[in-house]
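Complex 413.
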Amino acid sequence: MTETVPDTAPTQELPDFPAPRSGACPFAPPPDLLKLHDTDKSVLRVRSWDGTTPWLVLTHAAQRAILADPRMSANIGAPGYPHTTAAMKAHAGEMQPSINNTDGAEHVRWRRMLTSSFTRHRMRRLQPAIQQITDDLIDRMLDGPNPTELNEALSLPLPSLMICELLGVPYEDHAFFQKHAGVTNAVNRTPEENAATAGALRSYIARLIEAKMDDPDEDVLSDLGARIKAGELSLEEAAPLGHILLVAGHDTSANMITLGTALLLQHPDQLAALRENSGDPDYVAKAVEELLRYLTLPHLLARRAVVEDLDFEGVTIRAGEGVIASLPAANWDPEAFPDPGALALDRSASHHLAFGWGPHQCVGQQLARIELQVVFGTLFRRIPTLRLAAGLEDLSFKEDSQAYGIYELPVAW
Ligand code: HEM
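Predicted structure with protoporphyrin IX containing FE bound:
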């Protein structure tokens, strides 16, 4: 069990996970996490918020190995699973099986439900719509008040509109699902808030799917409705899947747009290079990979329970213990990314783990990439004088959320 005190050190001497970020450099992973790379260990015990002592997998190579290992389970109800929050722990036993918490053949079945909806080709076809929405939002920004708040003006509406379009969810309801996505991702949410939010979102999605079973369209919820009719899936299974896509599909990309903009505004040389090369899709694509690496917004992931003993990188990890593959640690591993603290938009960073690794790697990564390429290729070209309208020290960073970000980013031009 993760509660086991390690042989080598008393619990109180173990590093805390997560460690706090530095106020001086809030874009970088926590300094105490990065220091662990100097220990030459790729796996070590850490102390979690609830006093348990899961294994932390640190290096890029070790994380790729562990996240692809079939002895790891994503089932949050499995013994030893290292929960991120008290709410998650409280509800672990009642969590319905879905794409993000199943393993092996059961997980493959869930992934197959989405294969045809998320092909690279289908995502590429969305590019003109993403460009149009980005240009419209920037037009509106330029016609509106200056300064303005970037989440409201651009970062949230773009991915929300796109995920609504893809799923077939009415955008008029965005205030409702954005509020619930915020609760879903908050680390300090109570078990009661968690249950209320999940219930509200699932009944909302279930109602939409039922309507689409009678009147289908070309969207993911209609695809799920067709699978229900074909007997491949039940409505009780489809609703949580729609819920996961709706939450994962807008909050993550939104946080990347805001964080990436703030980071670039701190690096004028890199920003100038991006602006100069904004007509070159290959340069912009590389720049987006570097931003994803540097910022690694799923900063508390990836987490697994061990279902069978394994000898790994010089330690024995037992069934019933927890494993945290810290994605920011992998993406700042100097062996994989030399001089990781240097933001270098032209480096080859596409082997980063910001979308995870192994069977649970992000389903929406192609959509996220296209959204980010369009935004970062357009925003600074259209508004070359864009600047922060607040001091870095006045910004409130989302350390308490599963997706790192900035609550409000005032910008001016
Ligand atoms: C910048 C944006 C995004 C980032 C950084 C991101 C990151 C991740 C990561 C790290 C995982 C793996 C978690 C694990 O192994 O435990 C994941 C899984 C997932 N993501 Fe994303 N994601 C992003 C955008 C999206 C979008 C746009 C969608 C949907 C349209 C999406 C849907 C999903 C789903 C359904 C899973 C679960 C896959 C599975 O467990 O098999 N994500 N994401």
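Residues 74, 99-100, 111, 163, 244-245, 248-249, 252-253, 256, 297-298, 301-302, 354-356, 360, 362-364, 367-368 surround protoporphyrin IX containing FE (CB under 6 Å).
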